[in-house]
Amino acid sequence: MSRVEQEQFDRQLEKWQRPALLVGLAGLALSGVGLFLAPDHFFRAYLYGFVFWAGLSLGCLGLLMFHHVTGGMWGFAIRRVLEAGAWTVPLMALLFVPLLFGLPYVYVWARPEAVAADPLLQHKQPFLNVPFFVGRTAVYFLIWGVCAVLLARWSRRQDETGDMSLSARARRLSTAGLVLYLFIVSLASIDWVMSLEPDWFSHVYGWLFITDQFVMAVALALIPIMLLRRRSILAEILAPGVIDDLGNLLLAFLLMWVYLDFVQYLVIWQANLPEEVTWYLRRTTGGWQWVAAAVLALHFVLPFLLLILRGALAHRARTLLITAVILLIAHVADVYWMIMPAFYSSVWPIHWLDGVILVGMGGLWLWLALRYLHGVSLLPQQEPQVQKVLSHE
Question: Half-sphere exposure (CA, 13 Å, Cβ side) for 200?
């Protein structure tokens, strides 16, 4: 990217940074009013917003490490976006702190009177207790934060210095970090979401979260890349084969997600145990069945058809862009459908805090991600594979 193009790109980022920050601060300030008016729903809506944006951050981090381990030209095309998304992990650690003051509003196992009256909660208390929960979450974010910050800093330093040893260092860190990521995200999904209903469990729940995070990370990365694909430096690397690779990667993760979701449903339906089927009963009555149908249509059926048929469509890049937007919109409903039925039997009492907190966190998330991209080339130009493409070898 030439100096003129970089300056133009930075100016475009600045146009979005300030509004994003203002929206984020205004949203969280307004949600503070809701804390006094409806503290119970505030913390439930706060958990919903946190899980949504933390999932995007962690998905970007996991996919970034996956690319460092496996390589592939598809990863170089979206690496900067993944680094920007992973850069927000420390922000999500900071945003988790307010939730600690409302744990009894959200988790039944955090209420001493509920634990004293329930033998099952007493049995699970060695794991589901507040000090251990807080300690585990601190370790989670420490590991995620170290991996995200180091990978982003090494990538930028390599662009500045051309030091090829930084690629090997990032690969070694990602090899160990990806293993830890798979294990820790599984635990975090149990802590943050599955323990909302401690009488229910699923053996594939953690893998569902991981694959969903990967789907959303690819979808998120595709949006700016497809919008900016005509820029000179991206146009050289985004050959039809690379665009197809990104579409195939998104399709693979989407199929893995729906397979795990189907397996979970099939096993629970076949066993027909009261402590297991209750989870689905809460989410298929009281209007929640319509949310489930919308999630199925927008999170799988429509994106699947678009990805399968994209080869026959005139504009593959535009099809990928539309698919990515649909998936992100569906993810908003999907996370809501997973969390809120634990508190409400009906979908209709939607609270204004649900949207305000989600948008407020999103404003801060977007501001920090855009700030990382400021002054950074859209491609890691010092990577040997990228240099070969740019030099037309």
Answer: 22
